[in-house]
Amino acid sequence: MPIVDLGLLRSDRPLGKLVRTPLRLIPKNLVVPILQGPLRGRRWVVGSSVHGCWLGWYERPKQLEFAAALRPGAVVYDIGANVGFYTLLSSILVGSQGRVYAFEPVPRNAALLRRHVVLNDLKNVDVLELAVGERAARAMFDDTLGDSQGRLHDGGRLPVAVVALDALEAAGVLRPPDVMKIDVEGAEAAVLKGARRLLATCRPTVFLATHGPAQHQECLTILCGLGFHVLALGGGPPDKTDELVATRP
Predict the structure, then answer these.
(1) Which residues are CB-contacts of 173 (< 8 A; sequence separation ≥ 6)?
(2) What are phi and psi of 55, to 5 degrees?
(3) How far apart are CA 77 and CA 177, in angstroms?
């Protein structure tokens, strides 16, 4: 089979637009198998997210590097789980002795996340319909920017509960993490601040998407201050990317 340059399939490229034209005709509620990648054969709701999820090319470099960090029995925190692509990937790879905690505050996304859990008969996933931050609170969430770009914002219209990871783990709600994936559209530094004890004591591998230069620098300061070695996804210096991987010996 010839190798396709996945960059050519981006939605803003001619080939990407051509490929997507017939995809618009597929019913959004149709359940299909994921076609390739580590999740090949698993079941997915077509209209839950971008077509790249079930076609298998969604965030391909990230999903492969993330998958390589998972081991049977590991505990994963998926923070900003959306409809569950990385939750599903984590669940399959950590196995029955592992655990996945999927945090998603938006009701529409959380419902689809739970549907993917049921469709794939995942027994090791806990879905928590919560936002994550520095401390427990009630906050407003802006869900008007699209299903994958919602964020905590004072001007938002959706009230949500916010929790801190340190407090949840100390209360026995969570097992200590081995891997954390954080993609929260601008609240990432707050997530790290609310997990300082876990980061310091458990030393999980952290996959972190940053949003904006200020958040990026603040996250680097927090992680490096805790002794983490931070690189760009795929390697290289962390200063010119918004996808980071942090590890601590």
Answers:
(1) none
(2) -75, -20
(3) 7
- DSSP-based three-state secondary structure for 82: coil
Give pLDDT tens digits for 173-229: 999 999 999 999 889 999 999 999 999 999 999 999 999 999 999 999 999 999 999
Rounded CA-CA distance 35/103 in Å is 26
C-beta of residue 11 within 8 angstroms of C-beta of residue 51: no
Strands 75-79 and 179-182: parallel
- 89-137 pLDDT tens trace: 999 999 999 999 999 999 999 999 999 999 999 999 999 999 999 999 9
Name the residue type at position 20.
R
The answer to whether residues 70 and 179 touch, using CB atoms and an 8 Å cutoff, is: yes
Residue 19: strand, helix, or coil: helix
Of 10, 222, 127, 215, the closest CA to residue 206 belongs to: 222
Give the single-character DSSP code of 56.
T
Please give the model's pTM, rounded to 2 decimal places.
Answer: 0.88
